[in-house]
Amino acid sequence: MKPTVSIIIPAYNAEATLARCLKSVLTQSLREIEVLCVNDGSTDGTGEILKRWAERDGRIRVRQLEENIGIVPAENLGIRASTGEYVMFVDADDRLLQGACENAVRLIREYDVDILQFNVKVNVPPGTDGFIWKKLLTSKEWTSEGVNILYDCYSLRRIPYTIWNKIYRGEVCRAAAASMPDLQISLAADVLQEFFFFYYARTFRSVTDGPYYEYYVGNGISTHAPDAKQFAQICAASIILPAIEEFLRSRNEYETHRFLLDSVAVSQKTFMLSMLLALPEITKETIDLAVKTWGSEVLYDFIKYTGLLEVKCKSRLNLIPVLVEQIRKQQKNKSTTSARETTLTVGG
Fold first, then answer.
1. Element (H, E) at 232
2. Which residues pair with 277 in a beta bridge?
3. Where are the alpha helices (DSSP H) in 45-96?
4. How far apart are CA 224 and CA 325, in angstroms?
5. Does residue 287 or residue 213 have the better pLDDT?
6. Are 87 and 167 in contact (CB under 8 A)?
7. Distance between CA 9 and CA 249 in Å, rounded?
8. Which of 114, 123, 219, 226, by CA, is between 20 and 30 Å from 132?
9. pLDDT tens digit string along 183-225?
């Protein structure tokens, strides 16, 4: 019997949270589901946990990978193997809330759309207010059709990139996965994925129902300043743009969507610059990486972001070292000011 919903769960070194995730999925009131778990080359106990749960419940199908291939290829494996009328995604460190599948299916059928977005419960670490995430993931009532779905997401920012706060018509996901390049990127994967899902969708609806999904804000750049490795991963995600451009050119639609790609580029570059400034220490190497990724013009944007409009140097070759030195002075002044403020606060 064909399942009503295929639930895709990629897992990489998720032994601490995987059981909680699987329990939330397998205890759903809608029983006609298949759970496609992809163990993406984990080096911890993830594989054993999946094996035990699959032995208990025949609805679980596990794909064990020897090497880590990344979230996009892993989820595409799950999508391509899916047979459900609808598809939902769950991260291994999150969980579905009770009634999520049943209610999501009811709503997507009621509104007869290809993609339906619902509300999310945001679970934040102690000492974090999660305001940005809660604002981003609060769903509103509205609809979109055709190419406007892409523009609502990438130009108008009305739709968040997150793939797990939605339910999709299965045929849309499978068409997207057949066309989507299996890019091995660690960050911003959903920027690529949603482009292809929205490209193949004809109708979209956002509702205020829920929450149906509980998102646990992690320990990465969503809550902490990035390190140099994470910044390199942010820059590596720039391959999303040429991948989308190549897809559009293959369909002779590049000129039609050129403005859309410009919006994606601005969004990615802005995020990169904000993360560059959030680094504990900005070095010549990190600025060189930003320039290598986005071109020399990014230096002018960087100057605007830092407020260093009066930087003077004799040549462009000297610009990066001068910027680094000026930024270090800024950071040192900020640290001194912060220490003084702390002393004044404690001293009363």
1. helix 228-236
2. none
3. 46-56, 71-81
4. 24
5. 213
6. yes
7. 32
8. 114
9. 999 888 999 999 999 999 999 999 999 999 999 987 555 556 6
Q: Please give the backbone phi and psi of residue 187, each rounded to the nearest 5 degrees, phi first.
A: -125, 150
Structure-token pair, residue 344: 């004044």
Q: How confident is the model at residue 340 (pLDDT cuts 50, 70, 90)?
A: very low
Element (H, E) at 154: helix 148-154
- Give DSSP secondary structure letters for 157-182: --S-S-STTEEEEHHHHHHHHHHS--
62: tokens are: 């596990």
Highest mean pLDDT among 173-177, 283-287, 321-325, 330-334 belongs to: 173-177
Residue 211: asked if its preceding bond is cis (omega within 30°), the reply is yes
CA distance 289 to 291: 5
Strands across the sheet with 213-216, in order?
95-96, 213-216, 120-123
82 close to 198: Cβ distance less than 8 angstroms = no
Take residue 84 and report the two structure tokens written for it.
Answer: 């459900």
Q: What homologous superfamily is domain 5-216 in, according to CATH?
A: Spore Coat Polysaccharide Biosynthesis Protein SpsA; Chain A (3.90.550.10)
Q: Determine the Cα–Cα distance for residues 75 and 9; give it in Å rounded to an integer.
A: 7
| Structural domain spans, the chain | 5-216, 228-347
As a whole number of angstroms, the distance between CA 237 and CA 215 comes to 23
Residue 331's Cβ-side half-sphere holds a number of Cα atoms within 13 Å equal to 14
Residue 229 makes CB contacts below 8 A (sequence gap 6+) with none
Nearest to 251, CA basis, from 199, 204, 307, 214: 199
What is the sign, positive or negative, of the torsion defined by CA atoms of 63, 67, 70, 72? negative
Q: How far apart are CA 37 and CA 277, in angstroms?
A: 37
DSSP category for residue 238: G
